[in-house]
């Protein structure tokens, strides 16, 4: 209930989530996660465990669930975190990624071309990161789609989760906080998802394009 109040859920939604919690185990590594892990990250991880579909729109930064440890560490350092805090957050991110291995997932990452130019790490680590994304694009349950065309929606990313027992939720990440949107507030993101998929490369073309870009990055001609 505390998180429901903190994140501004309306009373009827709080009651519904309480009823849901009584019939669903909510414990996991996030309940006693790495020291200093933000509360909203624990809440997000709990939601991920129960989601039946996950869609990440990442216009400028590769999705956390697809990041290598080295690239994730570079992201955390660029965000101003100390080495100790950065490592703690990377550990939490890697534990979240285990979700993609533990069960059949329906994870869609729609990635903007800007994210493939955002080389926050060394070139060597970025090449390894790009190869990692390409390999994941071939796995069952993981659908990666590249958007190279200009779009208004490049101004900001979001994370849409769909559930069996209660509608949808959108996670909006801010600099040092996050917002959770539910039900009616989440509906517009379903439409944006549809429009982005209309302009995104198909899965096979995305995989091929990722291979080309990765090789260009290896020889120094990208980004």
What's the short story on this structure?
This is DUF5753 domain-containing protein. This protein is α/β, with parallel strands linked by helices and 223 residues long. It is 46% helix and 15% strand.
Relevant terms:
Endonuclease, Chain A, 223 residues, 46% helix, DUF5753, alpha/beta, six-stranded mixed β-sheet, DUF5753 domain-containing protein, 9 helices
Structure description:
It comes from Actinokineospora fastidiosa. Residues 43-211 form the DUF5753 domain. This is DUF5753 domain-containing protein. InterPro entries: DUF5753. The protein has a single domain, classed as Endonuclease, Chain A (2-Layer Sandwich). Helix content is 46%, strand content 15%. The longest helix is centred in the last third of the chain and has 16 residues, at 203-218. It is globular. It has a six-stranded mixed beta sheet with strand order 3-2-1-4-5-6, sandwiched between helices. The protein has helices at 2-6, 11-23, 39-50, 69-78, 83-97, 99-102, 123-136, 187-199, 203-218; strands at residues 53-58, 107-112, 142-147, 158-162, 168-173, 178-182. With 223 residues, the chain is of the alpha/beta class. A hairpin with a 5-residue loop joins strand 4 and strand 5.
